Amino acid sequence: MTAHPALGLQEEAIAFLGDPRSHGGQAVERIDTHAALVFLAGDRALKLKRAVRYPYLDYSTVEKRRAACVAELAINRRTAPALYRGVVAIRRGDDGRLRLDEGAGNASGPASSDASRDVIDWLVSMARFPDEALFDRMAERQALTPALMRRLAERIAAFHREAAPRPEEGGVEAMRAVADGNFVDLHAAADLFPAEKVARLAERTGAALDRLAPLLEERRRAGFVRHGHGDLHLRNIVLLDGEPALFDAIEFDEALAVTDVFYDLAFLLMDLDHRGLRPLGNAVLNRYLEETEDYGGLAALPLFLSLRAAVRAKVSAAALRLGGRRGEKTAVLADEARRYLGHALAALDPAPARLVAVGGLSGSGKTRLAHGIAPDLGPAPGAVVLRSDVLRKRLCGVADTDRLPAGGYAPAVTERVYAELYRRAAAVLAAGHAVVIDAVSARPDERRRIEAVAAEAGLRFDGIWMEAPLVERVARVTNRRSDASDATADVVERQESYDLGTIGWTRLDSGRVASDVLDDARASLA
Predict the structure, then answer these.
(1) Per-residue model confidence as pLDDT tens for the chain (526 residues)
(2) What is the rounded distance in angstroms from the CA atom of residue 246 to the CA atom of residue 234?
(3) Is the dihedral of CA 85, 86, 90, 93 positive or negative?
(4) Is the distance from CB of 370 to CB of 358 less than 8 angstroms?
């Protein structure tokens, strides 16, 4: 990192922005990062780019900072238009005093000489939101829920769908460039990161890039490289009016944001896993896959998670060199940087793929158990859950919670649903990921075909059969709300006449407390 000589000149602007008189007498709060300073006053936030130059970022001149502010405004209005108000200039008046000039720099392209005259610096003006609405703060107080994370996954999937494909960019060479940039910065921080660990990470990353090169190129040509967010971790997501909103996307280098959509998603998954919130990451991954059906990206996920962790390691090191984030102890930041490096290494040594099937009649608790065990299985952030009820709705072209007519449950449709379950399970296993199949699987041939998927892949299979008293199952389906299952009390009672044949899977009494059932399932899978 290079502190440009302009950084000294910026001190006047920093002092001006920190003065309540510059904001009509309102109290000012300041937030420091390695690349920017944010000043909070009243109902808005003003973001000043630091006059710094990194290998991946250059804010060293006033004009470069203006261009970055304009780009940030345009890029982030894609996902958070209510947050981003405009670009503001700091000017020196005839009396020598500094003042804010609202909306002076919103036009794209180089600023005119008149627009630039007497400008000391440029700012992004944003609507202020409560700090407690940030997802990293919500994570700290355990306020993030699986339902909220599934909604976030839907927002990310929609954002990726709407982003224009960029097949001429990205691919394996772009990922090599990210990796090379990481290692330059990691080696430069030898006081933080042991050379042996960095060398081992470089070797494993290079091997993964070589192995995955055909897949990454195939995905580039197929349109999976798009202009995404680029910095999609919890600190850059906020809850606005009850909905998750993505903000603070990368604007300083388009190459860091024009990437494989799975690499974009991987930052969020890595951040959740790093914080010990793998079940929430698993919820995000599964909902994203249900929305996009992009199972092809799973094979590259361990590499992407590792690259993202390495990015956070070097960013934490950069913040440390700047004196730490405001109010954060140096020792804490150093430990965080080292843990990210450890995370980057661990991601490239994932747990093996495996297949688990959770069967049982309607209301037996299959779905709760499937999502409960999924985070524990296979590579981070856990297994892909393939639920027959959701897949049936998708194949029939309706929303998850729309009820299907009787024809949606005709034998031919059910056969198609199970065939697609087997096909997707095989594809996920081939990508090196674990799978949990959540389906009734009442017929012996259905269970045999699920087992065959694992056998053909040469991977471990475990089957769990859920059993609960009829009265309990009837109560559960009757009390369901906003669920993909269409089962009713009548359906549950009719299932009592099913000839289940011989069940060789592990039987679990699911009429008990759910946590006890989950503990028994985990024990059987260990």
Answers:
(1) 455 444 556 999 999 999 999 999 999 999 998 889 999 999 999 999 999 998 778 999 999 999 999 999 999 999 999 999 999 999 999 999 999 998 665 555 555 555 567 899 999 999 999 999 999 999 999 999 999 999 999 999 999 999 989 999 999 999 999 999 999 999 999 999 999 999 999 999 999 999 999 999 999 999 999 999 999 999 999 999 999 999 999 998 888 899 999 999 999 999 999 999 999 999 999 999 999 999 999 999 999 999 999 999 999 998 888 765 544 578 888 999 999 999 999 999 999 999 999 999 999 999 999 999 999 999 999 999 999 999 999 999 999 999 999 999 999 999 999 999 999 999 999 999 999 999 999 999 999 999 999 999 999 999 999 999 999 999 999 999 999 999 999 999 999 999 999 999 999 999 999 999 999 999 999 9
(2) 9
(3) negative
(4) yes
Superfamily of domain 355-525: P-loop containing nucleotide triphosphate hydrolases (3.40.50.300)
Domains of the chain by residue range: 2-128, 135-347, 355-525
Whether the CB-CB separation of 347 and 274 falls below 8 Å is answered with no
Number of neighbouring beta carbons within 10 Å of residue 294: 17
